[in-house]
Design goal:
The chain is an alpha/beta fold.
């Protein structure tokens, strides 16, 4: 069996999501390996050489590719906790293998290969199975799945991992693929920007999220969830997403022509403007845990159906008598619903209600989305429709391309949303026609620019009645399932009691070992017993249903986690730090339990 067949079989077995697309590239010959060459090295190994424009560039040492990679990798420190490696360039895997040999078992290597032709060439000439089959490696390949790289960062990397993150480039490839290397760096920077955006006041957000979740549990009985709408909303019905950008004031009246001919989703911030102009919309989307109450204060919107999350602001759900459909959700709701064979789709968070509305359209398999009011930029000094001018710009000046090819002022958060839309549209590979009918604001890469009048005249030609769909849809939980659901919620009170008890045991265990270590009285038998105990306790917590509600709060509240994650190199000191981290985690569990228990008790009274 040759290298190609062996590598392809490995992809088929370990990365089925890549297999069909790699196979298509091979069958349709969507690659050109002519400039690549395999050359023999002095130590009997093989190297990759690139011959282009009269120049010769070697991607490996002529003497020993393996030793070269081993020397190169010494510049990076892999001893810290929660290390992740972001690597630009795979080629024949020599440097990736060197990293994998140094990484801890729990570390993650995310590789972006910028050239599909080089990838196919190396599949033909090198054994890549060690990398392909590794569950420690996330692999993204040019023109195969590279558009998913940004979303992988969100899935795999959390803010706690960032201080110990390693970003590296396969030697020479940063120069050879300069533009793609810059895009690689930009994706990482956008991920960091997103984390900074959501990190502000995160502790308060998690507390409010738990509070909202428990108060919103009572709405489960008469609600639905997004998966139940798949196939109910015809794919060819355009989805109009109405945001509250300043350009909404220009064309809001045009929306009257789309009533009953499109699925009109109003973001919560746009509702005021729509009601002011007597525009009918089909449903509101509201996700934020702490949104301003004034957005939905008009009583006319209190009977509207809503797309919401379990953490959405409780006051909005309390005042609303319309049907509630759960969309973006925590692991908590996914875990509950999965007990009844109900599966939520994967939700790629973008950070705004408009990105959530786009996710809705994506999961409904809509073929066309029309943006309205999606400026993501200032119009003069105005940030939103219906609001006055900002008195003073906050933050650094940031400009981006507008729909006319000029420059327009934007904000850091809006720029992050623009990047999210760009990458999400690219990921859809043309399966959805995205039209920007905002008639102003920033250019959304991948979208087509039209006026709203043109978009409605051309595409909103059929009839659509969302109320009819909702009226035919029974709530997710019947009486029997809801009774089981209530029992699960009641059992969480017992889980909280047990979690606190186990956490107290953990603190006692870690304190005992730390005390011995600090007095230079190391007892290996005692430590071995402690490690076994801590492992058992840590395995207990995630098995509890309520833990999926508390995990973010617990992680956020581990005192000194950033400092503890960075090891010093001194064995005894680092051992103490590791136990201190465990102790801090147990203490955080207790804080979470004490915060949540009275809220759960109050919520149970309403079920």
């Amino acid at each position: 069996m040759g290298y190609l067949e062996k590598n392809i079989d490995c992809i088929k077995e370990n990365r089925p999501d890549l297999y069909d697309r790699v196979k298509e590239v091979l069958e349709k010959e969507k690659y050109n390996p002519e400039k690549f060459e395999v050359i023999d090295t002095k130590d009997g190994d093989k190297a990759v050489q690139i011959n282009e424009a009269g120049k010769t560039i070697r991607l490996n040492s002529l003497y020993s590719p393996k030793k070269e990679a081993e020397r190169w990798v010494k510049q990076y420190k892999f001893d810290n906790i929660d290390v992740s490696v972001l690597m630009f360039g795979l080629a024949n895997g020599a440097f990736a293998n060197a990293i994998m040999n140094k990484m801890k078992d729990d570390a993650i290597l995310i590789i972006m290969e910028p050239d599909v032709s080089l990838f196919i060439f190396c599949l033909n000439n090198f054994d890549m199975t060690g990398i392909i089959s590794s569950d420690r490696v996330e692999l993204y390949i040019d023109r195969i799945n590279d558009e998913n790289f940004y979303f992988c960062l969100h899935k795999v990397i959390n803010s706690i991992m960032i201080p110990n993150q390693i970003i590296c480039f396969y030697p020479e490839m940063e120069k050879l693929y300069y533009d793609k290397a810059k895009e690689f760096e930009r994706a990482i920077q956008e991920k960091y920007s997103f984390d900074m955006l959501v990190a502000y006041g995160l502790d308060d957000v998690y507390r409010k999220g738990i509070d909202n979740t428990l108060k919103n549990l009572k709405f489960v009985r008469n609600s639905n969830y997004i998966t139940e709408l798949i196939g109910k909303v015809p794919e060819d019905v355009p989805v109009i997403i109405v945001a509250a950008g300043p350009s909404l004031s220009k064309n809001v009246e045009e929306l009257k022509k789309a009533e009953g001919k499109a699925f009109i989703i109003a973001t919560d911030t746009a509702v005021k403007t729509l009601l002011k102009h007597d525009i009918h919309y089909d449903i509101i989307v509201s996700i934020d845990v702490k949104k301003r109450l004034s957005h939905l204060e008009d009583e006319r919107c209190h009977t509207s159906p809503m797309f919401v999350g379990i953490t959405s602001r409780n006051e909005f759900l309390e005042q609303n008598t319309g049907r509630k459909i759960w969309i973006i959700t925590s692991g908590f709701m996914s875990k509950i619903y999965s007990k009844y064979g109900l599966k939520y789709p994967n939700w790629v968070q973008g950070g705004s209600v408009a990105t959530d509305a786009f996710n809705i359209a994506k999961h409904l398999k809509s073929k066309r989305v029309i943006f309205v009011g999606q400026d993501l930029a200032y119009m003069g000094k105005q940030s939103h429709a219906g609001r006055g001018e900002v008195k003073k710009f906050v933050g650094k000046e940031i400009y981006t391309e507008d729909i006319y090819g000029g420059q327009v002022r934007t904000r850091e958060d809006w720029r992050t949303f623009l990047y999210w839309f760009k990458t999400m549209i690219a990921e859809l590979h043309g399966e959805m026609d995205v039209i920007d009918a905002t008639e102003g604001g920033a250019k959304i890469e991948g979208s087509r620019i039209m006026t709203l009048n043109e978009a409605i005249d051309e595409y909103c030609t059929g009839n659509f009645d969302f109320k009819e769909i909702l009226d035919s849809l029974k709530p997710t939980f019947d009486d029997e399932k809801y009774a089981i659901f209530k029992n699960d919620m009641k059992h969480m009170k017992i889980e909280l009691f047990e979690m606190k008890k186990k956490a107290e045991e953990g603190i006692k265990t870690t304190e005992s070992v730390i005390k011995s270590l600090k007095h230079k009285k190391r007892d290996m038998a005692k430590e071995k017993k402690a490690v076994k105990k801590i492992k058992k306790l840590n395995e207990f917590f995630p098995k509890q249903l309520v833990y999926s509600l508390l995990d973010d709060f617990i992680e956020m509240n581990i005192d000194g986690i950033m400092e503890v994650n960075s090891l010093s190199g001194d064995e005894q000191e680092d051992t103490i730090r590791a136990y201190e981290l465990s102790k801090a985690a147990f203490e955080s569990v207790i804080r979470a339990v004490e915060f949540t228990t009275p809220l759960l008790e109050a919520a149970l009274e309403t079920l």
